[in-house]
Specification:
heterodimer, A: mainly beta, Immunoglobulin-like, B: 7-stranded mixed beta sheet, 11 strands, 0% helix, globular
Chain lengths: 114, 114
């Protein structure tokens, strides 16, 4: 079975500051890794995904994440955040098999203030 | 190009009642999954439909059932509603050849059980 732990439930930052949202996962098989963003009263939007290859993955809106297999982590980073980045962020995993479901963490609330 | 459409957007039901939620997948998508997102939690996988059959199911009781129609749209039915069923219900669709990384999520149906 797989599980996801998002280490911070809330992350407050000031505008233009860097941010890191931490995600650890547990799995006995190879996995795909994802970060999704959820704005208020909206569904989930895919920020980026790691399937294979380069461990540094770049996504939309200036976000990037690094897959670390030895530490079973997939932390999300942005060098300079904007007010508009305020949202809920979810890390998710899925076993490296066809047709399997996404397993989500509990989410991290990113609050960007001026 | 319309994305995933869910209806209704909000719903209030009384404990013990039954509810039906509807989902129209994105054009070109034939696989539909349903997720339950309780307040302050990450989405949890309920089940997945493909070719009008339930293909995979998460850890949810039989009170949760579904259906997929020939046009790929889907319904989620919940019987004997409990207060704990109050949540945001998300529908996600993908093309069967895309794998788990091809999901598009709808904005959800907010179900409140009183």
């Amino acid at each position: 079975a797989q599980s996801v732990t998002q280490l911070d439930s809330q992350v407050p930052v000031f505008e233009e500051a860097p941010v890191e949202l931490r995600c650890n996962y547990s799995s006995s098989v190879s996995v795909y890794l994802f970060w999704y963003v959820q704005y208020p009263n909206q569904g989930l939007q895919l920020l980026l995904k790691y399937l294979s290859g380069s461990t540094l993955v770049k996504g939309i809106n200036g976000f990037e994440a690094e897959f670390n297999k030895s530490q079973t982590s997939f932390h999300l980073r942005k060098p300079s955040v904007h007010i508009s980045d305020t949202a809920e962020y979810f890390c998710a995993v899925s076993p490296n098999q066809a047709g399997t479901a996404l397993i989500f963490g509990k989410g991290t609330t990113l609050s960007v203030s001026s | 190009d319309a994305g995933v459409t869910q209806s209704p957007t909000h719903l209030i039901k009384t404990r013990g009642q039954q509810v039906t939620l509807r989902c129209s997948p994105k054009s070109g998508h034939d696989t539909v999954s349903w997720y339950q997102q309780a307040l302050g939690q990450g989405p949890q996988f309920i089940f997945q439909y493909y070719e009008e059959e339930e293909r995979q199911r998460g850890n949810f009781p039989d009170r949760f059932s579904g259906h997929q129609f020939p046009n790929y749209s889907s319904e989620l039915n919940v019987n004997a509603l409990l207060l704990g069923d109050s949540a945001l219900y998300l529908c996600a669709s993908r093309a069967s050849g895309q794998g788990v990384f091809g999901y598009t999520f709808g904005s959800g149906t907010r179900l409140t059980v009183v």
